[in-house]
LUD domain-containing protein (Amycolatopsis methanolica 239), 206 residues
Amino acid sequence: MVAPGGTAMSAREEILGRVRSALAATDPSEAPVPRGYRSVVPAGDVVELFAERLVDYRAELTRCTADTLPAALADALGTAESVLVPDGFPWEVPGGVPDTGQSAAELDRLDAVVTLAALAIATTGTIVLDHGRGQGRRVVSLVPDRHVCVLRTDQIVPGVPQAVAALSPDRPQTWISGPSATSDIELNRVEGVHGPRTLHVLLVSS
């Protein structure tokens, strides 16, 4: 194909030219895109829905109160002897190791990490970290074999649209749906290949 100036057009230029022409000839008001899904709220209790979906992903869940949280945290860490504790995590952790910028290799030698979360999503059973205080760097929630996350019930939002609206686009985000898992061609599930083998959420009644 030849451009208006007489020069030959590449296939890429031809395709992009057709896209631009099609867009220029389209009136967006004639074909509005429905956005009603952004305000749909799932029926029922969002806390119970989150708990159900979280367990479906094979994550571990412990419900507790602010008073019972320290004991629940100790139980969730079990036999872990070295636990990465990010700056701003507000509870004492047995075997706690401060985050001093350890490398991925050094983090891999730790037994566990504890973090807070920014929010959680009921419909998907997902916890979201935006790496503010108590949540640590992205790498600390991705390398140690056990991740224990403390989440308040009032941090649970109904769905993804509400989560996106609540999160700042200027902050890094890590969305976690259950422990790290993959499967081979025969669909044999393997956990812990590219992240924590165990995700344990402590759900604190607020």
